[in-house]
Amino acid sequence: MFSTLLFIFGALITFVISQECVPYSSPYDFSSGYPTIWETPTSDDFNTDEFQQVYNSIDWSQVPDIEPHQVVNGGLDRSNYPDSDPDCWWTYEQCSAPKAPGLQPDITICPEPETWGLTYDDGPNCTHNAFYDFLSENNQKATMFFIGSNVADWPNEAQRALTDGHQICVHTWSHPYMTSLSNEGVLAELYYARKAIKYVCGVTPLCWRPPYGDVDDRVRAIAQQLNLATIIWNLDTNDWDMEPVGSETPDQIDANFQSFVNMGQNGTFANSGCIVLEHEINNGTMSKAIEWYPKIKSAYQYVVPIATCMNITQPYAETNYTYPSFSEYTGTD
Ligand SMILES: *[C@@H]1O[C@H](CO)[C@@H](O)[C@H](O)[C@H]1NC(C)=O
Ligand SMILES: *[C@@H]1O[C@H](CO)[C@@H](O)[C@H](O)[C@H]1NC(C)=O
Ligand SMILES: *[C@@H]1O[C@H](CO)[C@@H](O)[C@H](O)[C@H]1NC(C)=O
Ligand SMILES: *[C@@H]1O[C@H](CO)[C@@H](O)[C@H](O)[C@H]1NC(C)=O
Ligand SMILES: *[C@@H]1O[C@H](CO)[C@@H](O)[C@H](O)[C@H]1NC(C)=O
């Protein structure tokens, strides 16, 4: 009887732990000190003492006075935006060299020739274990752009990224169009995502990627004051738009990967490499990443995370985390 009970208990525990995407309890409490999970921060979040302090720590005279864009039918309204692109709005014409003074350019390429900058957005996803196992088996590190709300929901999965040696960057709290938000909204999206990563993983990222690439000089200026470098991409697999979540067939996504593999073989990146947009949204996107990895590895000389491309050996504000330089990672010392 006792052993039967033990057996049932054991089975239950194994079931709970091995069943992906079943919420679990953790020591991390997000019920206060954070916006509501998966909601864009509101005035309730802006009116706290903590946020006011963060807000007052920003030198707003360095932040260009740019009106937020409107979101219409789920997309950004570009209709009244001047052709001269005064705000270096990436969404308009992929501008990445800021026009306002004092701003760092976005990182859009890996400077190393024949090199594939490996990045995955929107994690941590509760189904990512097989994918992270695959990366580990291949001794492959990547840059992970984590959504704060996902870190709050899946803290063990977030910690795994750090343990596995991946580079963690901020991908906002709730994945909005950043240029559509007020200054407070932009600041809160960045600040609380970074805080969640620090709380759960113990590190303070120094990089972020705007959801949809949607950044302009106002948003850049706020990110820069939080010591977050803006990282975009120059190749988009469009895996985010794959069925069933999106509208493209797996064949269309394969065609994109194939053309990027061709580029690795035909000299497109002879002088400098690429940063590729991929996602850990679901089994489909992660399976595509696994399927194409061997072909990418053989088409490109190196496949590395962004910190490695840039020789950033201390990718967090905490100085006791050291990552390999490009030559260390690739063994080309
Ligand atoms: C995708 O799902 C299949 C079937 O459940 C599983 O075998 C595979 O490991 C999953 N792939 C990833 C990357 O999670
Ligand atoms: C390299 O391959 C890409 C993708 O197939 C193609 O668009 C590009 O024109 C090719 N470049 C050269 C120099 O052949
Ligand atoms: C994580 O993966 C699950 C299963 O594929 C999916 O339903 C969910 O939308 C993903 N979560 C996020 C936040 O993208
Ligand atoms: C990284 O370091 C290597 C070796 O010192 C150097 O050749 C390369 O130019 C550096 N790359 C960047 C982006 O600083
Ligand atoms: C870095 O220091 C922090 C705080 O002392 C500690 O919790 C963490 O384990 C250290 N990490 C490494 C990789 O040394």
How does this structure look, described?
This protein has 333 residues and is an alpha/beta fold. The protein has one domain: Glycoside hydrolase/deacetylase (TIM Barrel), CATH 3.20.20.370. It is built from 13 helices and 10 strands. The protein has helices at 2-18, 43-46, 49-57, 90-93, 129-137, 148-153, 155-163, 183-201, 217-225, 250-265, 283-299, 306-309, 326-330, and strands at residues 71-72, 75-76, 115-123, 143-146, 167-170, 207-208, 229-230, 235-236, 274-279, 302-304. The strands form 3 sheets. Strands 3, 4, 5, 8, 9 and 10 form a 6-stranded parallel sheet that branches. The chain has a two-stranded antiparallel sheet with strand order 1-2. The longest helix is centred in the middle third of the chain and has 19 residues, at 183-201. Bound molecules: 2-acetamido-2-deoxy-beta-D-glucopyranose (5 copies). Residues 127, 130-131, 283, 286-287, 290 line the site of one 2-acetamido-2-deoxy-beta-D-glucopyranose (NAG). Its EC number is 3.5.1.41. Its cofactor is Co(2+). It is a lipid-anchor; GPI-anchor.
Reported by name, the CATH topology is TIM Barrel
Number of domains: 1
Q: Any guess at the CATH architecture?
A: Alpha-Beta Barrel
| CATH homology-level superfamily | Glycoside hydrolase/deacetylase
* Portion in strands: 5-15%
Instruction: Let me know the largest β-sheet.
Output: 6 strands, parallel
List the secondary-structure elements in sequence, H or E: HHHEEHEHEHHEHEHEEHEHEHH
Q: Evaluate the radius of gyration.
A: 21 Å
* Helix content estimate: 25-40%
Overall average residue pLDDT = 94
Number of strands: 10
- Small molecules (ligands, ions, cofactors) in the structure: 2-acetamido-2-deoxy-beta-D-glucopyranose
Low-confidence stretches: 1-17
Write down the overall geometry: globular
In DSSP terms (H or I, runs of 4 or more residues), the helix count works out at 13
CATH class: Alpha Beta
Query: What structural category characterises the helix and strand content?
Result: alpha/beta
C-alpha termini separation = 63 Å
Pfam families: Polysacc_deac_1
Catalytic activity: [(1->4)-N-acetyl-beta-D-glucosaminyl](n) + n H2O = chitosan + n acetate
Family: Belongs to the polysaccharide deacetylase family.
Enzyme class: hydrolase
